[in-house]
Amino acid sequence: MKNAGIIGIGRYIPEKVVTNVDLEKIVDTTDEWVRSRTGIEERRIAADDIDSSDMAYSAAKEALADANIKPEELDMILVATVTPDHPFPSVACLIQDRLGAKNAVAMDLSAACTGFIYGMITAQQYIQTGTYKNILVVGVEKLSKITDWEDRNTAVLFGDGAGAAVISPVSEGKGILAFELGSDGSGAKHLYQDKHIVMNGREVFKFAVRQMGESAINVIEKAGLTKEEVDYLIPHQANIRIMEASRQRLELPIEKMAVTVNKYGNTSSSSIPIALVEGVESGKIKEDDVVILVGFGGGLTWGAIALRWGK
Ligand code: UT7
Predict the structure, then answer these.
(1) With CB atoms counted within 10 Å of each terminal CB, which end of the chain scores lower, N or C?
(2) Is the CB of 272 under 6 A from ligand 1?
(3) Is the pLDDT reported for residue 289 higher than 90?
(4) Residue to probe by mutation, ligand 1, list 25, 205, 302, most atoms within 8 Å of CB
(5) What percent of the chain has pLDDT over 90?
(6) Is the shortest distance between the CB of 187 and ligand 1 below 6 Å?
(7) What are the CB-based long-range contacts (under 8 Å, 24+) for 217-220?
(8) What are 85-110's pLDDT values in tens digits?
(9) Ligand 1: does its nearest atom lie under 6 Å from the Cβ of 239?
(10) Contact at 8 Å (CB) between 135 and 167?
(11) What is the rounded distance in angstroms from the CA atom of residue 217 to the CA atom of residue 219?
């Protein structure tokens, strides 16, 4: 079996910044409430003429350049999103064409905020068996188009963005060391899209605090590692209080946890790959580091990956 790992990463961050103070003018909220309850200070909102496929395309181009492979070398494109441009064709097919990835099978995957982790593990199966060699996994969301801008319970939480990774065979001991995925459809009622996002914040909060810590611990054990060997934790960036609960469960110092929620809000499936790119760029993730990715989301869904960074 071949080890699957990340050989290139990229992201797209919309230019427009919307601060909590800007939102005070739209909904009955305060900067102080949003900061103290969520850790969010501002978020990015994509322009009207930029849809999910545009953001996914930009992140994908960056990831391909970073991986140093040509679009024709891609065997598969998996796009995790709950905000595709259209129900069909998939965002994956749209970017396949724009990239010129004519040899790639393309499809979207729906697992809400856990989508990128589901995508990485789906890719891993094809790589391990030797079926495919290079798989592009993208997490992209334009949540602003399904946000109810009159609902203060949700309007302050979300943002837009995209993150991408190329998954390919890597050397022994590197790449994905262990994973855990889970789903519980009985919790569907707590977080769903009607016309807009509808959420029972307290229920999702309780689930997230419990599940994130548990899944992170489980993959560390499955990988045959200890908490002390973890170099960096990338939790889904939904709420700093939920993230802090996982960090404390792993007994990690604060500098070993990725935090982007303050500047981008919750960008659903793109939050983990965006934080990964920023972790690598800032030098916080180095060759051979043990990185834990852990997420949760609507479905309900959850998942975690233990990864050794490097090719
Ligand atoms: O990717 C997965 C997506 N979802 C999540 O991650 C959400 C998980 N849940 C959370 O992050 C938190 O539950 C929230 C941030 C959504 C809410 O924080 P909380 O500490 O659980 O607050 P709460 O729901 O207990 O609400 C406290 C009060 C309520 O008022 P009453 O009923 O006590 O009078 C809310 O109406 O805060 C009120 N409130 C607000 N006040 C000012 C809710 N939203 C706001 C707001 N500004 N934006």
Answers:
(1) N
(2) no
(3) yes
(4) 205
(5) 99
(6) no
(7) 217/249, 217/250, 218/180, 218/304, 219/177, 219/178, 219/179, 219/180, 219/292, 219/294, 219/304, 219/305, 219/306, 220/178, 220/250, 220/292, 220/306
(8) 999 999 999 999 999 999 999 999 99
(9) yes
(10) yes
(11) 6
Q: How many Cβ atoms sit within 10 Å of the Cβ of residue 203?
A: 14
Asked about 196 being catalytic, the answer comes back as: no
State how far the alpha carbon of 301 is from the alpha carbons of 45, 91, 212, in Å.
25, 21, 11
- Please tell me if the CB atom of residue 269 comes closer than 6 angstroms to any atom of ligand 1: no
Chain position carrying tokens 């899944």 = 215
Looking at the CA of residue 202, tell me the nearest atom of ligand 1.
Answer: 13
For the Cβ of 222 lying below 6 angstroms from any atom of ligand 1, the answer is no
- Tens digit of pLDDT for each residue in 53-77? 999 999 999 999 999 999 999 999 9
310 Cα–ligand 1 center, Å = 39
Q: Which of 93, 190, 236, 239 is catalytic?
A: 236
Cα 29 to ligand 1 centroid, rounded to whole Å: 11
**pLDDT per position as a tens digit, 167-214:** 999 999 999 999 999 999 999 999 999 999 999 999 999 999 999 999
Sole residue written with tokens 């909060």: 205
8 A C-beta contact, residue 145 and residue 85? no
Residue 2 has pLDDT above 90, yes or no: no
Domains belonging to the chain, first-starting first, are: 3-170 (3.40.47.10), 175-308 (3.40.47.10)
**Is the CB of residue 163 less than 8 Å from the CB of residue 264?**
no
Query: Sign (positive/negative) of CA torsion 70, 76, 82, 83?
Result: positive
- What is the rounded distance in angstroms from the CA atom of residue 274 to the CA atom of residue 285? 13
Q: Which of 20, 93, 113, 134 is catalytic?
A: 113
